[in-house]
Amino acid sequence: MEPEAGAGLWEREGRARMRGCCAARPRPVGPARAEGAMNGTSELFLRTVVARAYPRVIGTGREKSWLIFETLLPMLGVAAYVFFYRAIGAPAEYSGLVVIGGAMTPFWLNVLWSMSSQLYWDKDAGNLALYIAALGSMMAILLGMALGGLVMTFTRAAVIIVAGWLLFGIPFSLTYWALLLLTFLVTMAALYGLGMVFASLFLLFGREAWHISNLLTEPIFLLSGFYFPVKALGFWVATAASLIPLTLGLDAMRQLVYPDNPTFGFLSVQLELWILLGLSVLFIGASKFALDHMERLAKREGRLTERRR
């Protein structure tokens, strides 16, 4: 048999086997096909989240100096407020308010610098084009950034709480620990949803992102009542500040930690929890719309991912 004839015979036999294989395993149709596509999308979303969170989790352990700068140094500011409240003879619960507020500070800074400004920095580094072209969604990428950054942020918050308990003898009540954990999780959902919205806006603003981040750092400390009860700002100012999830989250957690002293509470814990749930849905939905718009803009105009000259 000639080589050409043999090659043609083998090719025909291979095609026949492929047709038989395909005939033996028909493609799913209808609900089965939709279910397969949904499973594939969910798996891609989860893989993207894990892949983006991995560098931040690993990077935390590689840079040991961060453990000092990000945990011990922030305690100095908290200690200053604790000594101030003790000097004026304020009740011991006010020192606890400061410690809880100081523990929540790194979460806001993580959202503002490690999430809201991240896409703008990735644009300068040349990585944003890869994010846009990747199969995973931008929301999955930002969610991975948030979860990865939570590791270092939670470590810093835990050190502040433990140091406040050991160094200053500040008592904390964990009677309502389940509701406290639920409040914390809902607050984080709303807060990081707001961070996703900021990520799109900061990217669209371009060079102004850095100035906006600086602008929002200290005013939020004041409006959210990090170091004092937000009720002291007055009803209408505190109501306007409630658009920031940390405002109601801090107030609710303080009421749960000190249930015997309701004088500094702004609203009831149940009402604040429902408002936080509404803010979570609002900000996550708005972030989905903003990220989709940003992605369409990048693909249509091709200018969003250009590096700054």
What does this structure look like?
- This protein has 13 helices and no strands.
- It is mainly α.
- The protein has one domain (64-301).
- The longest helix has 33 residues, at 269-301.
- The chain is globular.
Average pLDDT rating: 77
Tally of individual helices: 13
Helix content: over 70%
Distance linking N and C termini: 67 Å
Summary tags:
13 helices, globular, 309 residues
Brief characterization of the structure:
The chain has 309 residues and is mainly alpha-helical.
List the helices and strands and how they pair.
Layout: H1 3-24, H2 31-62, H3 65-69, H4 74-87, H5 92-116, H6 118-125, H7 128-133, H8 138-167, H9 177-205, H10 208-223, H11 235-241, H12 245-257, H13 269-301
Helix pairs in contact: 2-8, 4-5, 5-8, 5-9, 5-10, 5-12, 6-9, 9-10, 9-12, 9-13, 12-13
